[in-house]
Amino acid sequence: PPTVRLADYRPSDHLIDRVELDVRLDPRDTRVTATLALRPNPAGRPDAPVVLDGDDLTLLGLALDGEVLAPEAYRADAASLTLPSCPQRPFTLRIETRLDPTANTKLMGLYRSSGVYCTQCEADGFRRITYFLDRPDVLSVYTTRIEADRETAPVLLGNGNPVEAGDIPGTGRHYTVWHDPLPKPAYLFALVGGRLDRVAKRFTTIEGRDIEIAIYVEPGKAERAAYALDAVERSMIWDEQTFGRAYDLDVFNVVAVSDFNMGAMENKGLNIFNDKYVLASPETATDADYAAIEAIIAHEYFHNWSGNRVTCRDWFQLCLKEGLTVFRDQEFSSDMRSRAVHRIGEVRTLRARQFPEDAGPLAHPVRPKHYAEINNFYTATVYEKGAEIVRMLRTLIGETAFRAGMDRYFADNDGRAATVEDFLRAFEAVTGRDLSRFAEWYERPGTPRVAVSGRYDAATRTYRLDFRQARPGAGADAPPLVIPVSLGLVGADGPLDQAVSDRVKDGVFVLEAAEDSLTFTNVAAEPVPSLFRGFSAPVRVEASLDDAARLTLLRHDSDSFNRWEAAQRVATGLITAQVRGDMMEMTGADRFVAALDTFLDAEALRDPAFAAQVLALPSEGDIADEIGQEIDPDAIFAARRALRRRLGAGLCDRLLTLREALAEPAGTLFSPDAASAGRRALRNAALDLIAVADPATGAELAQAQAAAAPNMTDRLAALSTLALLPGEARETGLAAFAERYADEPLVLDKWFAIQATIPEDGTVERIRRLQRHPAFAMTNPNRVRSLVGSFSLANPTQFNRLDGAGYDLVAETVLALDGTNPQVAARLMTAFGSWRRLEGRRRSLAETALRRIAATPGLSRDVTDIGTRSLA
Ligand code: B3K
Ligand code: ZN
Predict the structure, then answer these.
(1) How far, in whole angstroms, is CA 731 from its chain's centroid?
(2) Is 123 touching ligand 1 by the criterion CB < 6 Å?
(3) Cis peptide bond prior to 291, omega within 30° of 0
(4) Helix, strand, or coil (residue 675)
(5) SS3 assignment, position 860
(6) Half-sphere exposure in the Cβ direction for 267 (13 Å, CA)
(7) At what angle do helices 728-740 and 712-723 cross, to 10 degrees?
(8) What is the interface pTM, i.e. ipTM, of the complex?
(9) From the Swiss-Prot or TrEMBL record, what is one GO molecular function term (predicted)?
């Protein structure tokens, strides 16, 4: 496939000021008439032909300024429409196309999901609706008329504000007209038509605009949208108060559909969501689901400014809207919930997804320099590392300057298609700083390493820290990065706040050179350095601290993130030592158990959510990432389980007592708030550890909990615990669950996922059976992700089976899916991204599976691109 390069960017030769769309919806024969007000772009090439993008379209008619064009005046095929000579002045094109929404299995462009017409245009789906200049730097004002059968599509929604609606007498059809006054790129276009229920509330913005917020869902499910509706309102208020951003239309609509390639989409005034991120009730959704709904509702809403009002010049700038908007939604969730616990979750996600990506063949800069298929660049690197860059910027310049810079960015770029340079320029303008060296974070892939060592001098009461940064894979010419290091010193009894260094301002040292050092004075006794507090930079830290020092941090650091991190590091050390073949170091493990016991005693009931995080050991993936090469997932699993056993056994009595203390009194009304969720999390973390150490007690407790659970969080946690214990109880529990939720697709997804992640021989065969289950469907992305996606991402021992059966299963699914939904197929295939880091036998099996996919004729561009890069 042809490569698109950032260096080749040039402005469009034409612009489209206004778009009038007339869409006549029909399940198989939808007609679209687009009237485009075109003009030559002063910044483009003079006399250039008009070349519009298309994808899978049938052209029915074409007129220029009202005159039907003769066939020799243009060239049309499924992929483009070219007018070799056209007026050098403003003119209108009227284009009539036909499409088949029912046949659209790619779920890009206009398609039907369970009978509901909906659209997905980002990145390049609009060209599947009509021929267009489908690029984000062409901004137009849209008026959309939508017409459909009244019976099957009583609700018809578009972008912007509703202006007209009516019946078409004698036809059984009706229509609505929508006008979106703010110019937008085509990727933000959307429409919806279907039979949907609605919940709504009115809201007055800080600017005094009276608006209506509405959520549309499958009939009968309106109650389950209440939490999402509330989350929209809270997001609006938060963005007004935190960033001074108010909503700008009269209506804000959210629609939930069941077939969706990703989480949700920020179409202007008409967000379309995967229903997984809208629908929630205590009986069907877990605490994690509620938190994800809150975060994604906020994320899409925040795009209204960071993405829609200020959009991207080209797709290389994707992090400009995605990294920034992830940062904004993380801040929102941190304000709504526990900031410390949320930060731990953010870092867990970054390490689980972005670090491995950045260490493998699919690594790319936060702002890529080239791509073959842009839809493969909606990655953890662009999103999560992109958010970390924004956070580092705030750490470097401080909160006040950061807010001023954001204001400046919005003011200077409102209504424009901007670049990363425009973003940084706003912060340079308000601070007077030169951020050109900081900008290097956008340019090169790979996770930097920072080695730190400390030396205490009792005579001078000073403590010196030496820093050295390195970037794997970056050539010798690569300039050092600007790395904010939040840090402090901790003594045997607590933080040493009297210790100071002139290199540390507001708790932050800025590492700008390849090597640097700083000295604290007034240090009364040998301290433990608390480095990268709050995970102040997305780096791997190599600090020569022993376990005793780390356990001091767990006990006394003022920074919660580093307290958690200390426990994670100790656990990682114990597990990797065992993987290397050293016996589990008895005294080390005992000291760890004792430290956790003390910690729980003091704090479990004070902050259960935090305690649950401390108890959750690093994942198998975290350990693999730490080991980095010749990875043996079976050895990691065994070592990790051995440590979990030690914890479960050593803490058993305390965990049982905690479970009692944290139990909700019967009849307590369910609340998804962070504090209640935290108590459930700790209670279930305790169950999990008890069950590894003492399977009989674990099974008994889990069975009782599964039977009596008053909410999905507790029921699912119990089932997950049972799922790890082979035997009759597990199978009965799974069967009962399936029966109870037979009519609940989102809950069945959880049932599929639990089984896909059982770390035992037999799981591959189980999945193959489940693929023939009547509720399984390859056409539903949520189903594919829950069964095959969770297997590939969250079941390392079985995915990496030594006979290659796990790789075969995923490879076959990728191939089976590619013909109908290449985007989801390509995403699934990224599970092979870390294949080079595996031990030899698995490495060659994984490579064989990848080559088998890559050698299949007729592959999509999406899968071809992942294959090519993975094998390069
Ligand atoms: N912007 C969309 C993602 C579109 C993905 C296209 N393949 C959702 C989001 O990040 O908010
Ligand atoms: Zn986004």
Answers:
(1) 33
(2) yes
(3) no
(4) helix
(5) coil
(6) 31
(7) 150
(8) 0.99
(9) alanyl aminopeptidase activity
Q: Is the CB of 262 under 6 A from ligand 1?
A: yes
Cβ partners under 8 Å of residue 685, min gap 6 = 611, 612, 615, 616
Side-chain-facing half-sphere of 756: CA atoms under 13 Å: 27
Q: Which residue has the tokens 């006399």?
A: 47
Expressed in angstroms and rounded, the spacing between residue 44 Cα and the centre of ligand 1 is 29
Q: Which helix (H) or strand (E) holds 646?
A: helix 633-662
- 122 carries an active-site annotation: no
Q: Which ligand 1 atom is the nearest neighbour of the CA of 264?
A: 8
Specify the long-range contacts of residues 235-239, CB closer than 8 Å, at least 24 apart: 235/297, 235/298, 235/301, 235/302, 235/332, 236/203, 236/205, 236/301, 238/298, 238/332, 238/335, 238/336, 239/301, 239/302, 239/305, 239/328, 239/332
Locus of tokens 């402005």:
11
Instruction: Tell me the pLDDT tens digit for each residue of 478-523.
Output: 899 999 999 999 999 999 999 999 999 999 999 999 999 999 999 9
Whole-angstrom CA distances from 636 to 751, 762, 797 are 26, 19, 9
- Measured in degrees and rounded to the nearest 5, phi and psi for residue 863 equal -75, -35
Q: What DSSP character marks residue 856?
A: S
Q: How far apart are CA 630 and CA 618, in angstroms?
A: 19
Q: How far is the CA of 302 from the centre of ligand 2 (A)?
A: 9
Structural domains of the chain ordered from first start:
1-194 (2.60.40.1730), 311-442 (1.10.390.10), 450-537 (2.60.40.1840), 547-693 (1.25.50.10), 741-872 (1.25.50.10)
Helix axes 805-818, 861-871, angle to 10 degrees: 150
d(CA 131, CA 133): 7
Q: What percent helix, strand, coil does the chain show, rounded to 5?
A: 45, 20, 35
Instruction: Say how far apart CA 857 and CA 3 lie, in whole Å.
Output: 20
Structure tokens at 439: 């900008």
Q: With CA atoms as reference, report the closest residue to 181 among 133, 251, 126.
A: 251
> Ligand 1 atom 3: the closest Cα is on which residue?
265
Contact 174, 150 (CB under 8 A): yes
The preferred substitution site among 121, 187, 188, 266 for testing ligand 1, maximizing ligand atoms within 8 Å of CB, is 266
The tokens describing 103, both together, are: 């046949």
Average pLDDT over residues 680-691: 98
Residue nearest to atom 8 of ligand 1 (CA): 265
> Cβ(826) to ligand 1 under 6 A?
no
According to DSSP, the residues that pair with 467 across neighbouring strands are: 452, 516
Q: How far is CA 282 from CA 204, 211, 296, 603, in A?
A: 30, 29, 19, 28
d(Cα 180, Cα 18) in Å, to the nearest integer? 10
**Index of the ligand 1 atom closest to the CA of residue 261:** 7
CB atoms within 10 A of CB 506: 8
Q: Indicate which residue's Cα is closest to atom 5 of ligand 1.
A: 122
Q: How far apart are CA 463 and CA 501, in angstroms?
A: 10
Distance, in Å, from the CA atom of 180 to the CA atom of 376, rounded to the nearest integer, reads 30
Q: Show the tokens assigned to 336.
A: 């709504």
What's the predicted TM-score (pTM) here?
Answer: 0.99
- Residue labelled with tokens 């007498």: 169
Could you tell me the pLDDT band of residue 585, with boundaries at 50, 70 and 90? low
Q: Residue 350: name the closest of 316, 391, 321, 318 by CA.
A: 391
Q: Percentage of residues in the chain with pLDDT exceeding 90?
A: 97
Tell whether the model's pLDDT for residue 564 goes beyond 70: yes
Q: How many CA atoms lie within 13 A of 704 on its CB side?
A: 6
Cβ density class 401-423: b for 16+ within 10 Å, e for less: bbebbbebbbeebeeebbbbebb
Check 266, 300, 331, 620 and give the catalytic one: 300
In contact, 422 and 412? CB cutoff 8 Å: yes
Of 525, 517, 521, 532, the closest CA to residue 392 belongs to 532
Secondary structure class of 22 (helix, strand, coil)? strand
Show the beta-strand stretches assigned E in 547-670. none
